[in-house]
Each structure stands twice: as structure tokens, then as C-alpha cells.
Amino acid sequence: MKFGCHLSIRDGYLGAAKRAYAMNAGAFQYFPKNPRSLSVKDYPKEDAALCNNFCKKNGLLSVSHSPYPTSLTPNNDNKREQVTDSLLNDLEISEACGSIGVVVHFGKPVPHLTLLESYQLMIEVLNDILSRWDGTAKILLENNAGLPGTMGTTIEEHVQVRKLCEYPEKIGFCFDTCHAFSSGLWDGENWDDVLEKGQELGYFDELQVIHFNNSKYATREGKDRHASIFGTGFIKENQFAQIVKTPQLADIPFILETPKEEMSHEKEIELLQDKWGD
What we know:
Blueprint (H helix, E strand, L loop, with lengths): L2 E4 L5 H11 L4 E4 L14 H14 L2 E5 L11 H21 L3 E5 L9 H16 L7 E5 L12 H10 L6 E6 H7 L7 H11 L5 E6 L1 E2 L10 E2 L9 H8 L9 E3 L8 H12 L2
Parallel strand pairs: 1-2, 1-10, 2-3, 3-4, 4-5, 5-6, 6-7, 7-10
Antiparallel strand pairs: 8-9
């Protein structure tokens, strides 16, 4: 299993890769630039290339995460242009670092549009971006947290949006365990059903990364509050074990986004390796 965590790039992309390696992680996630801004970054290309080479040499997988303001359903033309330019920048940086792709949250309803129009806008934005992208790094759509039935919380939505895009081969998926628990997609007891549905729809064929997070709240409460895997969260170890031991996920990186004040990521990765490592 390739367990890892989200790491800072304060010491550069190579610095993040070296930190992951020192933690005995098999993977890591990073923000390609300021996580609170949609500005386009003139990134250090030599540092990115060194990160790429280091990861290849040491068998590390990496994935980036788009900045917080990124929205695939922007509510005005100016925001749409910013998101498009920013995500193209994220993809370029991810490609240079040798990353699988950039994780992007599924879109949300736009207040002045119908739900169908919000989906249509999301597909248009994805098409705009991917028509200008020729690299191998993918946009990785992440399932949303939220009450059952809210936009972006089902496997069917993700598969259908990818299918309706003009460039489906440039889109993959990221499955967040806390978000899935929040929405009731996965309630801790129905993993076999989730797996069966995902295989039937081809979701797991395109799954590239798992965000491995516990939840501070019970399932179907719609709250996105992460907890440590081995802490006091509502998802139990035996429930996580069903996911970790799924053969179809053996080569997919499991990335922690858990609170470091509860347990250091280094310690949590050590526990994960001891319990479920190869």
C-alpha cells in the first residue's frame, strides 16, 4: 500500500518529496501554489524537475490539490476566466513535478441557475480547460461532502460528467472517505455496495487517489470535519480495513488530510504501515 499525506512546499517541490521519503511514505499531496489564491504562478522549473526525478528514483507517487477558491461552477465570467487560467497553471506544475494530476472538488449549485444548468456549466468549464491541455496530468474530480442528495456526492454524477465531457481521458477521480461518509455515499457498512456500483459504472477504472480521512461527525450529517484514522472519529478501523484491503485499490495512493494536532502524519503513516502495509 502507498500511504502518504498532504505536505507543505515551503521548502520547494523537491523538499516536499524528500520529506515524504523521510517519513517512509509512498505518496504525498501538495498545493502547487498559494492555496488561497487563483493567481498564476511562475513556478521554479528546475525544482519541479528535481522533484520529478527524485520521485521516479524512489518510487514515490504525488498528486497536487487545487487552491481553495477553485470552482468548476464559477458564478460569473471573471471568476470563470480566473479558474480556467489557474487550473491550467496547476496542471502544468503537476506535470512538471511528475504528479498524477490535480485534485479538484466537484462543482456546486449556482444560485441563479437551475441544477441542470449548473451541471452544464461544470462540463463547459472542464471542456474549456482540457481543450487547452495536452499533458498527461489529469483533473481528478473529488466527491463533495454534504447532506445526501446534494451535488457531487454520488458515483453516478462523477461518471456521467466525465462521460459527457469532450476529453474524458483527461479526467480521473479522487475518493474522499470523510466526504463519502458525510453524504452517506459510504456509511461504513455498505462498502460492498459502493464497490459493486463503482465497478458496474467504471468508476474504479478511473480512480487515481483516495483521500483517507476519518470524520468528526456521524454519517449523513453533511459535515466536512476530518479526524485521525486512529482517533475518536466515527469511522471505525474495521470499516477502513474493508477499503484498504480491496484488491482493486492496491496500487492507488491513500493520502491523509487528517488534523496534525490529533496525531502527527509521520506517526499516523507508521501506524498505517504497521497495520495494513505490504
